[in-house]
Amino acid sequence: MQSIQFVFPTKLYFGKGALNRLAEVDLPGTKALIVTSAGGSMRRNGYVDRLTALMERRSIPYVLYEKILPNPHLEHVMEAAELAKAEKCDFILALGGGSTIDSSKAIAIACTNPGNYWDYVEGGSGGGKPIANRMLPLVAITTTAGTGTEADPWLVISNEATGEKIGNGYASGLDTFPTISIVDPELMMTVPPRLTAYQGFDALFHATEGYINRKATDVSRMYSLKAIELIAKYLPIAVNEGGNEEAREKMALANTLAGFVEWLSGCTSEHSMEHALSGVKPAITHGEGLIMLCKEYYTFYQAACGEEYLQMAKAMGRRNATDPREFIDALMELTEACGVANPKMSDYGIQEEELPMIAHHAWYTMGGLFQVDPFLQTEADTLGILQRSYR
Length: 391
What we know:
Strand content: 5-15%
Shape: globular
Radius of gyration: 20 Å
Number of helices: 13
Number of strands: 8
Order of helices and strands: EEHHEHEHEEEEHHHHHHHHH
Structural class: alpha/beta
């Protein structure tokens, strides 16, 4: 018998123009720390001005923090938390992609709990302490279709001092879900093609990993298959026709559904391996790192997941699939359709002799995800996957 717990504490507003709901919804505080990225795209596209205008219209004071990087740094988490405490902010407004929202979850934890955020991280050099106090309320406004973090309790932060990139979070008790999430496809129209592709593959792998995860249930698999179907159909359109509103809306929906999958069943060790890669080489975009690994990772589990692969192949458009390998073939075809096939670790300066260290790092920092794989691989297996993926 399956045991399913379904508690979703986030108020989630989805659809074109959803950002404007902030003019009327009950916000969870009286002064906001607005957190956004360092690159300036949120300002160039007018999103910061739209958000601050909404706050000013409601006479809600705010402070801006605009330093978040694509692989978010612990240093910035702690700096922003100190700013929020000094300015007496009582809730966080995250405007951006997964890095911004993940950082904001960590900031919200650091604002209400003593010490350093890393004291509460499980795995690697993290302190593993339980969160003692509920984090500050968080309003998550996602501008990308990639991580699904607006719909789950997880967050990933990099410790630049140690080269570790570790996921963390709580799904019950003192949970780390956003209080309110805004999913407005209008805010995703300006994402460049290559980044659209990488983000879309991140969402795809949340759904596919969740489908083969040992914790998968009929409910999580329902969300997985729908997310896979939407991404396979609409990601190439969103990449090649960035202004296509239908494609952007469907990708936003797929991303949120894949976030539900992350919460209900979770990722597998493919993510552990990628975090080890981009923890060591932060220039690697998370979705690109997953693409580097996917062919060999899914080939490794093919014999154990025959029926699951058939169902995922069918969701990707191969309605008459009879061979589990067709799922892997469909993945490769999708990378080609999106212009991101065959990325190379060597392009980022990774040397083949570094792979044993990276394999060990995957187990050291996020070993828990290996426990929910279809079957438990060894560290030698992990190294083999990395070696066969190396280019």
